[in-house]
Amino acid sequence: MTSAFQVLQGNRLALARLLTQIENNTPEGRNTLVELYPQTGRAYRIGVTGPPGTGKSTLVNQLALHFRRSSEREPIRVAVVAVDPSSPFTGGAILGDRVRMRDLLGDPGVFIRSMASRGSLGGLASATTGIVQALDAAGFEFILIETVGAGQAEVDIARLAHTTLVIEAPGLGDDIQAIKAGILEIADVLVINKADRPGVENTERALKSMLQLGHPMEHHFQNHSREPGHWVNDEAASGITPSTGGPQFSSWIPPVIRTVATEGRGIRELAGAIQQHRGYLQASGELAEREMTRLRAELDLLVHETLIGRWRSRTSQERYLQALQRIARRELSPWQAADELVQD
Ligand SMILES: Nc1nc2c(ncn2[C@@H]2O[C@H](COP(=O)(O)OP(=O)(O)OP(=O)(O)O)[C@@H](O)[C@H]2O)c(=O)[nH]1
Ligand SMILES: [Mg+2]
Question: Which of 102, 61, 62, 65 is closest to 82 using CA atoms?
């Protein structure tokens, strides 16, 4: 029985083994992913990111429980991928996450995987892509991807998600430094967790004013007494009559949701905001658009890596160093050198 077949059959051990192969970037892992690829594209991916310690893991745990319990038909299958680029792979933070996710352990409809950096962050992003594809093929309908911080790696990983939640907590939000503009840009839903702590209003005010900077249309639409988390028709808001009539959902204002993850408060509202964003993406056509953008980036990267790899295997290090020295001596321009080096 092939490992792809076992994964499709719901064999958790085979899935765990495959995820390790993908993490280690082995040829077996790659081959299985190739086989599984036609079965992917069904999962809804939710990114969860934000500064350290804001309660992301606790919140992910609660959301997963909520998804497991809330559905009327067959329970939704949920996977969680916790990516921790900062800690070594025996890191305590990951063990902590595992412990906190104990509510979900033993539930066959839930699969939890922790990943840590093994060298390059770029490698981590591509391993995460593979892991998410494997979980998607294995039939998990919701995939929650937790990352820490606001670096490029988190942004790359967030691009994997259909809906990205950015988690802040009171005390951090007051200081605008803590809310990196980059992380706000990727937010589809903003969460102020630890809303049981003092300073929630300040954090909310800071976040909303930053959102206003990023989404000037919000001003208009507040005048139209509409709430964030709803669709905004830019043309109507700006007073231009749409020529075609039909609705044009041209932008989404991230709603700000308060939660207390440790007590499960605000989780229903958060899940509602995610569903609403999903509806927006579908109705506006942005879902398909985002998917194409993501696939294009993935393909471009692979073409790039494949070409470089092929070229490296054909070109001796010596030839490369010689060219480099000639560039340094100004005997050859870098453009000419590149041309010469890639010629067969
Ligand atoms: N008071 C309060 N504490 C919370 C809340 N949510 C989480 N915590 C606590 O905050 C601490 C950090 O929670 P985690 O869920 O590990 O936070 P995290 O963002 O995943 O942390 P990293 O992954 O290390 O960045 C834990 O002690 C939680 O119990 C909340 O809503 N209120
Ligand atoms: Mg965590």
Answer: 61
Dig out the tokens for 313 from the structure: 């295997």
Bridge partners of residue 167, in order along the sequence: 191
Predicted confidence at residue 246, as pLDDT, reads 45
Is the Cβ atom of 196 under 6 angstroms away from ligand 1? yes
Instruction: Give the residue ranges of the chain where pLDDT is below 50.
Output: 88-96, 99, 173, 218-226, 234-248
Task: List the beta bridge partners of residue 256.
Answer: 190
Q: List, in sequence order, the alpha helices (H) in 224-285.
A: 234-237, 267-284
Question: Residue 301's pLDDT is what?
Answer: 85
Contact between residue 55 and residue 171 where contact means Cβ atoms under 8 Å apart: no
Q: Return d(Cα 125, Cα 187) in angstroms, integer.
A: 18
Burial tier of 191 (Cβ tally within 10 Å: 0-12, 13-18, 19+): buried
Please state the pTM of the whole predicted model: 0.83
Nearest-angstrom CA–CA distance, 226 and 237 = 11
State the DSSP code for 74. S
For residue 92, what pLDDT is reported? 41
Asked whether 111 and 135 are in contact (CB, 8 A), the reply is yes
Q: Where are the alpha helices (H) located in 111-159, listed in sequence order?
A: 121-137, 152-159
Q: For residue 63, give both structure tokens.
A: 């959301």
Q: Would you state the pLDDT for residue 180?
A: 63
β partners of residue 84: 116
Residue among 48, 49, 57, 99 whose CB has most ligand 1 atoms within 8 A, to mutate: 57
Ligand nearest to the Cα of 91, by number = 1
Query: Among 59, 40, 124, which residue's Cα sits nearest to residue 87?
Result: 124
Within 13 Å of residue 289, how many CA atoms lie on the same side as its CB? Answer: 8
